[in-house]
Protein backbone atom coordinates (compact mmCIF):
# COMPACT_ATOMS: atom_id res chain seq x y z
CA UNK A 1 0.00 0.00 0.00
CA UNK A 2 1.62 3.33 -0.94
CA UNK A 3 0.95 6.70 0.59
CA UNK A 4 0.12 10.10 -0.81
CA UNK A 5 3.30 12.11 -0.14
CA UNK A 6 5.24 12.96 -3.30
CA UNK A 7 8.38 13.59 -1.24
CA UNK A 8 9.63 12.88 2.27
CA UNK A 9 12.31 14.60 4.36
CA UNK A 10 14.08 12.90 7.24
CA UNK A 11 16.42 15.04 9.36
CA UNK A 12 14.60 18.21 10.40
CA UNK A 13 17.40 20.50 11.52
CA UNK A 14 17.21 23.96 9.95
CA UNK A 15 18.19 22.95 6.39
CA UNK A 16 15.93 19.88 6.38
CA UNK A 17 13.05 21.78 7.94
CA UNK A 18 13.32 24.64 5.43
CA UNK A 19 13.56 22.25 2.49
CA UNK A 20 10.42 20.42 3.69
CA UNK A 21 8.62 23.75 4.02
CA UNK A 22 9.75 24.75 0.53
CA UNK A 23 8.30 21.54 -0.96
CA UNK A 24 5.04 22.08 0.96
CA UNK A 25 4.76 25.73 -0.04
CA UNK A 26 5.09 24.59 -3.63
CA UNK A 27 2.06 22.33 -3.38
CA UNK A 28 3.66 18.95 -2.69
CA UNK A 29 2.46 16.64 0.07
CA UNK A 30 5.50 16.21 2.29
CA UNK A 31 6.13 13.30 4.65
CA UNK A 32 8.21 14.28 7.67
CA UNK A 33 10.48 12.25 9.92
CA UNK A 34 13.10 13.04 12.51
CA UNK A 35 14.97 10.81 14.96
CA UNK A 36 13.61 13.03 17.74
CA UNK A 37 9.87 12.94 16.99
CA UNK A 38 9.21 16.18 18.91
CA UNK A 39 11.00 18.08 16.11
CA UNK A 40 8.53 16.66 13.61
CA UNK A 41 5.58 17.71 15.71
CA UNK A 42 7.09 21.16 16.28
CA UNK A 43 7.44 21.74 12.53
CA UNK A 44 3.79 20.84 11.89
CA UNK A 45 2.63 22.94 14.86
CA UNK A 46 4.55 26.00 13.66
CA UNK A 47 4.32 25.69 9.86
CA UNK A 48 1.47 23.25 9.25
CA UNK A 49 -0.51 26.00 7.55
CA UNK A 50 2.06 26.31 4.74
CA UNK A 51 0.98 23.13 2.98
CA UNK A 52 0.24 19.44 3.41
CA UNK A 53 2.52 17.60 5.80
CA UNK A 54 2.29 13.95 6.88
CA UNK A 55 4.09 13.62 10.20
CA UNK A 56 5.59 10.16 10.79
CA UNK A 57 6.74 8.93 14.19
CA UNK A 58 8.69 5.92 12.88
CA UNK A 59 10.72 4.94 9.82
CA UNK A 60 7.98 2.49 8.82
CA UNK A 61 5.28 5.16 9.07
CA UNK A 62 7.44 7.56 7.08
CA UNK A 63 7.98 5.06 4.24
CA UNK A 64 4.31 4.10 4.23
CA UNK A 65 3.36 7.75 3.78
CA UNK A 66 5.24 8.03 0.47
CA UNK A 67 3.71 7.45 -2.97
CA UNK A 68 5.57 5.09 -5.34
CA UNK A 69 8.28 5.44 -6.52
CA UNK A 70 9.14 6.69 -3.07
CA UNK A 71 11.35 9.83 -2.89
CA UNK A 72 13.07 10.12 0.45
CA UNK A 73 15.39 13.07 1.20
CA UNK A 74 18.06 12.58 3.86
CA UNK A 75 19.19 15.82 5.51
CA UNK A 76 21.66 14.69 8.15
CA UNK A 77 25.39 15.26 8.74
CA UNK A 78 27.71 13.96 6.02
CA UNK A 79 29.68 10.78 6.72
CA UNK A 80 28.64 8.00 9.10
CA UNK A 81 25.29 9.60 10.10
CA UNK A 82 24.24 9.48 6.44
CA UNK A 83 25.26 5.82 6.13
CA UNK A 84 23.32 5.03 9.30
CA UNK A 85 20.12 6.63 7.99
CA UNK A 86 20.51 4.87 4.63
CA UNK A 87 20.76 1.55 6.45
CA UNK A 88 17.70 2.40 8.54
CA UNK A 89 15.53 3.04 5.50
CA UNK A 90 16.90 0.96 2.61
CA UNK A 91 15.46 -2.34 3.91
CA UNK A 92 12.00 -0.73 3.97
CA UNK A 93 12.15 0.42 0.34
CA UNK A 94 11.26 -1.35 -2.90
CA UNK A 95 12.78 -1.50 -6.37
CA UNK A 96 12.70 1.88 -8.14
CA UNK A 97 12.46 3.93 -4.95
CA UNK A 98 14.82 6.92 -4.61
CA UNK A 99 17.00 7.92 -1.66
CA UNK A 100 18.22 11.52 -1.99
CA UNK A 101 21.18 12.80 0.05
CA UNK A 102 20.93 16.58 0.35
CA UNK A 103 23.92 16.98 2.66
CA UNK A 104 27.41 18.21 1.77
CA UNK A 105 28.63 14.65 1.22
CA UNK A 106 32.00 13.84 -0.31
CA UNK A 107 31.35 12.76 -3.91
CA UNK A 108 33.41 9.57 -3.42
CA UNK A 109 31.00 8.52 -0.65
CA UNK A 110 28.10 9.27 -2.98
CA UNK A 111 29.63 7.11 -5.74
CA UNK A 112 30.04 4.24 -3.27
CA UNK A 113 26.49 4.58 -1.92
CA UNK A 114 24.99 4.89 -5.40
CA UNK A 115 26.71 1.67 -6.52
CA UNK A 116 25.73 -0.27 -3.38
CA UNK A 117 22.09 0.82 -3.52
CA UNK A 118 21.84 0.35 -7.30
CA UNK A 119 22.75 -3.32 -6.68
CA UNK A 120 19.75 -3.42 -4.32
CA UNK A 121 17.45 -1.90 -6.98
CA UNK A 122 17.26 1.45 -5.22
CA UNK A 123 18.23 4.78 -6.83
CA UNK A 124 20.62 6.93 -4.82
CA UNK A 125 20.85 10.61 -5.72
CA UNK A 126 23.54 12.81 -4.19
CA UNK A 127 22.24 16.38 -4.39
CA UNK A 128 24.33 19.49 -3.80
CA UNK A 129 22.11 22.16 -2.29
CA UNK A 130 23.49 25.69 -2.10
CA UNK A 131 22.09 28.84 -0.59
CA UNK A 132 22.16 28.10 3.12
CA UNK A 133 19.04 28.10 5.28
CA UNK A 134 17.36 30.97 3.39
CA UNK A 135 18.04 29.27 0.08
CA UNK A 136 16.59 25.97 1.29
CA UNK A 137 13.36 27.78 2.15
CA UNK A 138 13.02 30.29 -0.68
CA UNK A 139 14.82 28.58 -3.58
CA UNK A 140 18.32 27.08 -3.55
CA UNK A 141 20.55 26.12 -6.42
CA UNK A 142 20.19 22.35 -6.66
CA UNK A 143 22.84 20.07 -8.15
CA UNK A 144 21.53 16.47 -8.39
CA UNK A 145 23.59 13.53 -9.60
CA UNK A 146 22.31 9.98 -9.89
CA UNK A 147 20.65 8.10 -12.74
CA UNK A 148 18.66 9.78 -15.53
CA UNK A 149 15.73 7.56 -14.47
CA UNK A 150 15.77 8.97 -10.94
CA UNK A 151 15.95 12.52 -12.30
CA UNK A 152 12.86 11.82 -14.43
CA UNK A 153 10.98 11.15 -11.21
CA UNK A 154 12.69 13.70 -8.97
CA UNK A 155 13.63 16.53 -11.36
CA UNK A 156 10.23 18.21 -11.67
CA UNK A 157 9.96 18.54 -7.87
CA UNK A 158 13.49 19.99 -7.55
CA UNK A 159 12.95 22.41 -10.41
CA UNK A 160 9.74 23.64 -8.80
CA UNK A 161 11.42 24.47 -5.45
CA UNK A 162 14.74 25.71 -6.89
CA UNK A 163 15.73 29.35 -7.17
CA UNK A 164 14.89 30.94 -10.50
CA UNK A 165 17.32 32.88 -12.70
CA UNK A 166 16.30 36.26 -14.12
CA UNK A 167 15.03 34.51 -17.28
CA UNK A 168 12.80 32.30 -15.09
CA UNK A 169 14.86 29.15 -15.61
CA UNK A 170 14.98 26.88 -12.52
CA UNK A 171 18.40 26.60 -10.89
CA UNK A 172 18.35 22.82 -10.89
CA UNK A 173 19.40 20.38 -13.59
CA UNK A 174 20.65 16.81 -13.79
CA UNK A 175 24.42 17.28 -13.44
CA UNK A 176 25.41 13.72 -14.33
CA UNK A 177 25.50 10.18 -12.94
CA UNK A 178 26.42 8.95 -9.45
CA UNK A 179 28.57 11.50 -7.57
CA UNK A 180 28.55 14.25 -10.23
CA UNK A 181 26.16 16.45 -8.27
CA UNK A 182 28.15 16.37 -5.05
CA UNK A 183 31.38 16.89 -7.03
CA UNK A 184 29.99 20.06 -8.62
CA UNK A 185 28.71 21.27 -5.23
CA UNK A 186 32.20 20.70 -3.81
CA UNK A 187 33.73 22.83 -6.58
CA UNK A 188 31.01 25.44 -6.01
CA UNK A 189 32.20 25.65 -2.41
CA UNK A 190 35.83 25.85 -3.53
CA UNK A 191 34.99 28.76 -5.81
CA UNK A 192 33.03 30.29 -2.92
CA UNK A 193 36.16 30.15 -0.77
CA UNK A 194 38.21 31.80 -3.54
CA UNK A 195 35.57 34.49 -4.09
CA UNK A 196 35.47 35.23 -0.36
CA UNK A 197 39.28 35.38 -0.13
CA UNK A 198 39.53 37.83 -3.04
CA UNK A 199 36.87 40.04 -1.44
CA UNK A 200 38.78 39.86 1.86
CA UNK A 201 41.97 40.97 0.11
CA UNK A 202 40.17 43.86 -1.59
CA UNK A 203 38.81 44.90 1.82
CA UNK A 204 42.28 44.62 3.39
CA UNK A 205 43.83 46.82 0.68
CA UNK A 206 41.08 49.44 0.84
CA UNK A 207 41.40 49.50 4.62
CA UNK A 208 45.18 49.65 4.94
CA UNK A 209 46.40 51.21 1.67
CA UNK A 210 43.47 53.43 0.65
CA UNK A 211 42.90 54.21 4.33
CA UNK A 212 39.13 53.75 4.00
CA UNK A 213 36.87 53.08 7.01
CA UNK A 214 34.66 49.98 7.01
CA UNK A 215 31.67 52.23 6.32
CA UNK A 216 33.39 53.75 3.29
CA UNK A 217 34.44 50.34 2.07
CA UNK A 218 30.83 49.21 2.43
CA UNK A 219 29.87 52.12 0.19
CA UNK A 220 32.54 51.09 -2.32
CA UNK A 221 31.27 47.50 -2.39
CA UNK A 222 27.71 48.75 -2.85
CA UNK A 223 28.89 50.69 -5.90
CA UNK A 224 30.78 47.67 -7.25
CA UNK A 225 27.63 45.61 -6.77
CA UNK A 226 25.90 47.74 -9.42
CA UNK A 227 28.44 46.71 -12.04
CA UNK A 228 30.22 43.59 -13.29
CA UNK A 229 30.91 42.40 -9.70
CA UNK A 230 27.15 42.26 -9.02
CA UNK A 231 26.80 39.20 -6.76
CA UNK A 232 25.41 37.90 -3.47
CA UNK A 233 28.84 37.82 -1.83
CA UNK A 234 29.60 41.45 -2.74
CA UNK A 235 26.14 42.44 -1.55
CA UNK A 236 26.50 40.78 1.87
CA UNK A 237 30.06 42.09 2.23
CA UNK A 238 28.70 45.64 2.11
CA UNK A 239 26.12 44.68 4.77
CA UNK A 240 28.74 43.12 7.04
CA UNK A 241 31.10 46.09 6.69
CA UNK A 242 28.32 48.64 7.27
CA UNK A 243 27.25 46.88 10.47
CA UNK A 244 28.07 48.53 13.83
CA UNK A 245 28.59 46.34 16.87
CA UNK A 246 25.84 47.29 19.32
CA UNK A 247 27.83 46.47 22.46
CA UNK A 248 30.82 48.69 21.60
CA UNK A 249 29.64 51.06 18.89
CA UNK A 250 32.66 49.93 16.86
CA UNK A 251 32.57 48.58 13.28
CA UNK A 252 31.40 44.96 13.58
CA UNK A 253 34.37 43.73 11.54
CA UNK A 254 36.73 45.16 14.17
CA UNK A 255 35.28 43.18 17.07
CA UNK A 256 35.38 39.78 15.28
CA UNK A 257 38.36 37.48 15.94
CA UNK A 258 40.37 37.40 12.69
CA UNK A 259 40.62 33.59 12.48
CA UNK A 260 38.54 32.02 9.72
CA UNK A 261 37.04 28.55 10.12
CA UNK A 262 36.00 26.03 7.51
CA UNK A 263 33.72 23.00 7.52
CA UNK A 264 35.94 21.43 4.87
CA UNK A 265 34.37 21.43 1.42
CA UNK A 266 36.91 23.96 0.14
CA UNK A 267 39.68 21.71 1.45
CA UNK A 268 38.19 18.73 -0.40
CA UNK A 269 38.18 20.75 -3.62
CA UNK A 270 41.93 21.33 -3.38
CA UNK A 271 42.68 17.72 -2.38
CA UNK A 272 40.77 16.41 -5.39
CA UNK A 273 42.32 19.02 -7.70
CA UNK A 274 45.77 17.81 -6.61
CA UNK A 275 44.77 14.24 -7.54
CA UNK A 276 43.37 15.40 -10.88
CA UNK A 277 46.43 17.57 -11.61
CA UNK A 278 44.33 20.72 -11.96
CA UNK A 279 45.94 23.97 -10.70
CA UNK A 280 43.27 25.60 -8.52
CA UNK A 281 45.74 28.01 -6.94
CA UNK A 282 43.04 30.58 -6.12
CA UNK A 283 41.02 28.04 -4.14
CA UNK A 284 44.14 26.61 -2.52
CA UNK A 285 45.35 30.05 -1.41
CA UNK A 286 41.89 30.71 0.04
CA UNK A 287 41.99 27.49 2.06
CA UNK A 288 45.55 28.18 3.24
CA UNK A 289 44.67 31.80 4.12
CA UNK A 290 41.91 30.51 6.40
CA UNK A 291 44.31 27.97 7.92
CA UNK A 292 47.07 30.56 8.44
CA UNK A 293 44.65 32.96 10.11
CA UNK A 294 43.85 30.21 12.61
CA UNK A 295 47.46 29.79 13.78
CA UNK A 296 47.19 32.46 16.47
CA UNK A 297 50.31 31.45 18.42
CA UNK A 298 52.45 31.27 15.28
CA UNK A 299 51.22 34.71 14.17
CA UNK A 300 51.95 36.14 17.59
CA UNK A 301 55.46 34.69 17.55
CA UNK A 302 55.99 36.21 14.08
CA UNK A 303 54.57 39.67 14.76
CA UNK A 304 57.98 41.24 15.31
CA UNK A 305 59.43 40.02 12.00
CA UNK A 306 60.84 42.94 9.99
CA UNK A 307 58.69 44.33 7.15
CA UNK A 308 56.72 47.41 6.03
CA UNK A 309 53.49 48.62 7.62
CA UNK A 310 51.04 50.03 5.11
CA UNK A 311 50.67 53.82 5.10
CA UNK A 312 47.36 55.16 3.74
CA UNK A 313 47.48 57.04 0.44
CA UNK A 314 46.46 60.69 0.06
CA UNK A 315 42.68 60.94 -0.65
CA UNK A 316 43.01 61.67 -4.39
CA UNK A 317 45.32 58.70 -4.90
CA UNK A 318 43.10 56.51 -2.69
CA UNK A 319 40.15 56.86 -5.07
CA UNK A 320 42.33 55.85 -8.03
CA UNK A 321 43.73 52.93 -6.02
CA UNK A 322 40.19 51.76 -5.21
CA UNK A 323 39.41 51.66 -8.92
CA UNK A 324 42.53 49.60 -9.48
CA UNK A 325 41.48 47.20 -6.72
CA UNK A 326 38.16 46.67 -8.52
CA UNK A 327 40.09 45.70 -11.65
CA UNK A 328 42.31 43.33 -9.67
CA UNK A 329 39.32 41.78 -7.94
CA UNK A 330 37.47 41.20 -11.19
CA UNK A 331 40.50 39.81 -13.02
CA UNK A 332 41.32 37.47 -10.13
CA UNK A 333 37.68 36.37 -10.01
CA UNK A 334 37.83 35.41 -13.70
CA UNK A 335 40.91 33.30 -12.93
CA UNK A 336 39.27 31.56 -9.94
CA UNK A 337 36.21 30.62 -11.98
CA UNK A 338 38.48 29.52 -14.85
CA UNK A 339 40.25 27.16 -12.45
CA UNK A 340 37.00 25.90 -10.90
CA UNK A 341 35.43 25.09 -14.25
CA UNK A 342 38.67 23.42 -15.33
CA UNK A 343 38.33 21.14 -12.31
CA UNK A 344 34.72 20.28 -13.18
CA UNK A 345 35.84 19.51 -16.75
CA UNK A 346 38.67 17.29 -15.44
CA UNK A 347 36.37 15.50 -12.99
CA UNK A 348 33.81 14.92 -15.73
CA UNK A 349 36.47 13.35 -17.96
CA UNK A 350 37.97 11.29 -15.11
CA UNK A 351 34.63 9.82 -14.01
CA UNK A 352 32.84 9.79 -17.38
CA UNK A 353 30.09 12.17 -16.27
CA UNK A 354 29.79 14.25 -19.46
CA UNK A 355 28.92 17.36 -17.44
CA UNK A 356 27.61 20.33 -19.46
CA UNK A 357 29.57 23.32 -18.11
CA UNK A 358 27.09 25.86 -19.50
CA UNK A 359 24.30 24.19 -17.54
CA UNK A 360 26.36 24.30 -14.34
CA UNK A 361 26.89 28.05 -14.79
CA UNK A 362 23.19 28.44 -15.58
CA UNK A 363 22.02 26.88 -12.30
CA UNK A 364 24.51 28.97 -10.32
CA UNK A 365 22.85 32.20 -11.51
CA UNK A 366 20.43 32.17 -8.57
CA UNK A 367 19.90 30.45 -5.24
CA UNK A 368 23.52 29.58 -4.44
CA UNK A 369 26.14 31.43 -2.43
CA UNK A 370 28.20 32.36 -5.52
CA UNK A 371 25.12 33.57 -7.44
CA UNK A 372 26.11 36.49 -9.68
CA UNK A 373 25.36 38.19 -12.97
CA UNK A 374 28.84 37.04 -13.96
CA UNK A 375 27.59 33.45 -14.20
CA UNK A 376 25.31 34.39 -17.06
CA UNK A 377 28.43 35.42 -18.97
CA UNK A 378 30.05 32.07 -18.20
CA UNK A 379 26.90 30.26 -19.35
CA UNK A 380 26.96 32.21 -22.62
CA UNK A 381 30.66 31.46 -23.13
CA UNK A 382 30.18 27.68 -22.74
CA UNK A 383 26.90 27.62 -24.66
CA UNK A 384 28.68 29.37 -27.55
CA UNK A 385 31.67 27.01 -27.34
CA UNK A 386 31.02 23.83 -25.28
CA UNK A 387 34.59 22.72 -26.06
CA UNK A 388 36.11 25.96 -24.72
CA UNK A 389 39.60 24.90 -23.47
CA UNK A 390 39.43 27.50 -20.70
CA UNK A 391 37.24 30.43 -19.72
CA UNK A 392 40.23 32.60 -20.61
CA UNK A 393 39.86 31.34 -24.20
CA UNK A 394 36.55 33.20 -24.37
CA UNK A 395 37.15 36.40 -26.37
CA UNK A 396 35.24 38.70 -24.03
CA UNK A 397 36.84 37.37 -20.85
CA UNK A 398 40.27 37.56 -22.49
CA UNK A 399 39.62 41.20 -23.44
CA UNK A 400 38.38 42.09 -19.96
CA UNK A 401 41.30 40.47 -18.17
CA UNK A 402 43.69 42.06 -20.66
CA UNK A 403 42.22 45.48 -19.94
CA UNK A 404 42.52 44.85 -16.18
CA UNK A 405 46.02 43.45 -15.99
CA UNK A 406 47.93 46.74 -15.72
CA UNK A 407 45.94 47.80 -12.65
CA UNK A 408 46.02 44.23 -11.36
CA UNK A 409 49.83 44.25 -11.49
CA UNK A 410 49.96 47.69 -9.86
CA UNK A 411 47.75 46.49 -7.01
CA UNK A 412 49.82 43.32 -6.41
CA UNK A 413 53.01 45.38 -6.54
CA UNK A 414 51.58 47.92 -4.10
CA UNK A 415 50.48 45.14 -1.77
CA UNK A 416 53.99 43.67 -1.87
CA UNK A 417 55.65 47.01 -1.16
CA UNK A 418 53.16 47.90 1.58
CA UNK A 419 53.37 44.47 3.25
CA UNK A 420 49.71 43.57 2.72
CA UNK A 421 49.19 39.82 2.08
CA UNK A 422 47.26 39.21 -1.15
CA UNK A 423 47.80 35.50 -1.85
CA UNK A 424 44.68 35.28 -3.98
CA UNK A 425 45.39 38.28 -6.21
CA UNK A 426 49.06 37.29 -6.59
CA UNK A 427 48.36 33.59 -7.26
CA UNK A 428 45.76 34.50 -9.88
CA UNK A 429 48.22 36.84 -11.60
CA UNK A 430 50.97 34.20 -11.55
CA UNK A 431 48.55 31.62 -12.99
CA UNK A 432 47.66 34.10 -15.75
CA UNK A 433 51.32 34.82 -16.53
CA UNK A 434 52.25 31.13 -16.42
CA UNK A 435 49.50 30.34 -18.93
CA UNK A 436 50.80 33.10 -21.20
CA UNK A 437 54.51 32.27 -20.89
CA UNK A 438 56.27 31.04 -24.06
CA UNK A 439 58.77 29.01 -21.96
CA UNK A 440 58.38 28.01 -18.31
CA UNK A 441 61.27 27.15 -15.94
CA UNK A 442 59.79 23.63 -15.80
CA UNK A 443 62.55 22.75 -18.31
CA UNK A 444 65.08 23.33 -15.53
CA UNK A 445 62.97 21.23 -13.15
CA UNK A 446 63.10 18.36 -15.64
CA UNK A 447 66.89 18.71 -15.87
CA UNK A 448 67.23 18.63 -12.08
CA UNK A 449 64.95 15.56 -11.82
CA UNK A 450 67.02 13.79 -14.45
CA UNK A 451 70.27 14.78 -12.69
CA UNK A 452 69.37 13.44 -9.22
CA UNK A 453 66.77 10.78 -10.11
CA UNK A 454 67.36 9.80 -13.76
CA UNK A 455 63.67 10.59 -14.27
CA UNK A 456 64.30 11.43 -17.98
CA UNK A 457 63.02 14.37 -19.99
CA UNK A 458 61.59 15.11 -23.44
CA UNK A 459 63.32 17.36 -26.01
CA UNK A 460 61.85 20.26 -27.99
CA UNK A 461 63.46 19.07 -31.21
CA UNK A 462 62.62 15.36 -31.36
CA UNK A 463 60.23 12.69 -30.07
CA UNK A 464 61.01 10.31 -27.24
CA UNK A 465 62.42 10.60 -23.74
CA UNK A 466 66.07 11.00 -22.83
CA UNK A 467 68.53 10.79 -19.96
CA UNK A 468 71.90 12.49 -19.57
CA UNK A 469 74.75 10.52 -17.98
CA UNK A 470 75.38 13.24 -15.39
CA UNK A 471 77.77 11.10 -13.37
CA UNK A 472 79.76 10.07 -16.44
CA UNK A 473 80.65 11.78 -19.70
CA UNK A 474 77.32 13.68 -19.67
CA UNK A 475 76.38 12.16 -22.99
CA UNK A 476 72.67 11.76 -23.69
CA UNK A 477 70.98 8.41 -24.13
CA UNK A 478 67.56 7.79 -25.62
CA UNK A 479 65.21 6.23 -23.18
CA UNK A 480 62.87 4.39 -25.58
C1 LIG B 1 26.25 26.71 0.50
C2 LIG B 1 27.40 26.84 1.49
C3 LIG B 1 27.38 25.73 2.52
C4 LIG B 1 28.68 25.73 3.32
C5 LIG B 1 28.56 26.53 4.58
C6 LIG B 1 29.85 26.42 5.42
O1 LIG B 1 26.55 26.50 -0.69
O2 LIG B 1 25.11 26.87 0.94
O3 LIG B 1 28.61 26.72 0.76
O4 LIG B 1 27.23 24.52 1.83
O5 LIG B 1 28.94 24.46 3.74
O6 LIG B 1 28.34 27.85 4.23
O7 LIG B 1 30.96 26.67 4.63
P1 LIG B 1 32.46 26.68 5.26
O8 LIG B 1 33.17 25.58 4.55
O9 LIG B 1 32.97 28.05 4.98
O10 LIG B 1 32.37 26.42 6.74
Automatic annotation (TrEMBL):
Membrane-spanning parts: none
EC annotation from Swiss-Prot or TrEMBL: 1.1.1.44
UniProt keyword list: Gluconate utilization, NADP, Oxidoreductase, Pentose shunt
Ligand binding (substrate): 104, 130-132, 188-189, 193, 263, 290, 449, 455
Catalytic activity: 6-phospho-D-gluconate + NADP(+) = D-ribulose 5-phosphate + CO2 + NADPH
InterPro entries: 6-PGluconate_DH-like_C_sf (IPR008927), 6PGD_dom2 (IPR013328), 6PGDH_C (IPR006114), 6PGDH_Gnd/GntZ (IPR006113), 6PGDH_NADP-bd (IPR006115), 6PGdom_BS (IPR006184), NAD(P)-bd_dom_sf (IPR036291), Pgluconate_DH (IPR006183)
Family indicated by similarity: Belongs to the 6-phosphogluconate dehydrogenase family.
Descriptive protein name: 6-phosphogluconate dehydrogenase, decarboxylating
Amino acid sequence: MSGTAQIGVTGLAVMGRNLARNFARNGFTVALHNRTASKTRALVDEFGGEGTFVAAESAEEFVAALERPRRLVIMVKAGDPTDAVIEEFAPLLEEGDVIIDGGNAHFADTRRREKELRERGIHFVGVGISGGEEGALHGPSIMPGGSTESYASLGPLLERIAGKAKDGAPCSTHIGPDGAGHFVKMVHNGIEYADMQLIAEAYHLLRSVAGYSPAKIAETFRTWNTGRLDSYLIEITAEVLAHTDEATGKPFVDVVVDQAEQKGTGRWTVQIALDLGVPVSGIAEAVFARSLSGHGALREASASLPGPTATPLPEADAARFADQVEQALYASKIVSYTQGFHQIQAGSEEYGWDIDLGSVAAIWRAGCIIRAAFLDRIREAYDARPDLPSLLSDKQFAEEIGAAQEDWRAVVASAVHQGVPTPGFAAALSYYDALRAERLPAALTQGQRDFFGAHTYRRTDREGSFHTLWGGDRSEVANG
